[in-house]
Amino acid sequence: MTAIPTTAFTDQKPGTSGLRKKTRVFMGPHYLENFVQATFDVVGAKGKTFVLGGDGRFYNDRAVQIILAIAAANGAARVIVGQGGILSTPAASHLIRLNKTDGGLILSASHNPGGIDEDFGIKFNMPNGGPAPESVTEAIYQRTLALGEYHKLSAPEVDLSRLGRSHVEKMFVDVIDPVSDYAALMESLFDFDAIRAMFARGFRMRMDSMCAVTGPYAVEILENRLGAAKGTVTHATPLPDFGGMHPDPNPTWAHELMGEMMGPDAPDFGAASDGDGDRNMVVGRGIYVSPSDSLAVLAANAHLAKGYKAGLKGIARSMPTSAAVDRVGAAMGLTTYETPTGWKFFGNLLDAGFATICGEESFGTGSDHVREKDGLWAILLWLNILAVRGGSVAEILAQHWATYGRNYYSRHDYEAIETARADAMMETLRAKLPNLAGQKVQGMTIAAADDFSYTDPVDGSISARQGVRIVFDGGARIVLRLSGTGTSGATLRLYLERYQAGPEGLDIPVQTALAPVIAAAEDIAQITANTGRTAPDVIS
Length: 540
Ligand code: G1P
Ligand code: ZN
What we know:
The structure is a single chain. The protein is an alpha/beta fold. The chain is 34% helix and 24% strand. The protein has three domains: 2-178, Alpha-D-Glucose-1,6-Bisphosphate, subunit A, domain 3 (Alpha-D-Glucose-1,6-Bisphosphate, Chain A, domain 3); 182-404, Alpha-D-Glucose-1,6-Bisphosphate, subunit A, domain 3 (Alpha-D-Glucose-1,6-Bisphosphate, Chain A, domain 3), CATH 3.40.120.10; 406-539, Alpha-D-phosphohexomutase, C-terminal domain (TATA-Binding Protein, 2-Layer Sandwich), CATH 3.30.310.50. Helix 7 (192-200) crosses helix 13 (375-389). The longest helix is centred in the last third of the chain and has 15 residues, at 375-389. It binds 1-O-phosphono-alpha-D-glucopyranose (G1P) and zinc ion. Residues 110-111, 274-276, 278-279 line the site of zinc ion.
């Protein structure tokens, strides 16, 4: 037992993706210990089994040893750890479910850079494999404020490089191959023979693992099992600082991949994933696939993969994600659920069997196979669709738009705005909402405007103030919300969408197609006057 002053740590409130801080904060005396003890106090450790692993960023290895020593001191029966302390987030979610454990601890700060001067994070996932709900994270937070001591053994460290079982006093530690169970799950969902045959016919792919956790998974699945050429996976070794890369799979940060895919010798298919492997970006030769379009294509074609051949139970997307997938759902007679931003809202829908496929505009897609979004899963589903349908990514997108029409879509981010100014802007906008319907802006008539409120169809819980939506006649839409994951000041996210039914006008440059919607957003929200910014920092 180590005594610490109560209220030593007042900043351990987990956000939507767990507790994220600078690595040096986590390295501070008793900091990680306090949070882990609080977690075990809330969820209980005695006699329980947990999964443990992370994305390999700086401090991952040390943190695993500390957590093992605390788990043992708190009477845990068994901890399943990925070799080297490595587990991707979706693989951890799968292991929690596969082994029917009492949950797991995942070490990651997702797509944030890693290193001693960058970010670290930890979160607890429940026995269903999904992130702890707010009731649990709030209880953990309250406990972090009240803790006066923690329990930690001073046992020798576990050799995480060796597969197999060892002990920390009475607690079993099973060091397992981080990849094999996950790879088997993927093999059960997708037609590996068809994909292998496609690679054998000369199909070329580039997978950029961005020196993050998916490297070993992608090499094993794509190169070893599916026969993609050796070297298909680049930046395949997870490094503590991600080799200085910012492992966020979007056109800005995955610029190397984008350059190759838009270049003269582009392969047929390109993909990237983030630090912990739950996000994905997909690119065709000469064509970028927006995450909202990717979700729609995956939903429309999932039945081509063996794991989904019985069809989908339903579809779910976060509110700011484009309505492209709604059109697929409608054509299939499926309910499309619209949830607040954040993966945790999908968990109830998946557990209840209301939805099979879920997605967010922020490069997250997944299904009911785990309770996290899953980057490699989305990439493999795309490969499966390409293998069955033939043709290029560009052709599949063109056919999709010809069938359903196109939802032009973009997100504009205004970062590090002074928090008070951002809050004031949102309040002014909210106050305007009741009077907006019927007004004409930039030649478009506003059909409805509200602040999104979600009632969970499974447990009836209500999440209010989830983002301002302004919908126009004809399906154009503006959404504004403040980020819940930013670290400095406030980040304003402006989501812009316009529907084009086709057959004409399906091939306009995105920002051009959205120009009237962008102008309307400025007219209504007065972003320049309210934030002092004349242009967004990031456009995706
Ligand atoms: C962002 C994304 C959101 C995602 C979350 C965690 O949250 O927009 O879709 O679920 O990261 O990965 P935000 O910063 O917008 O609150
Ligand atoms: Zn992530």
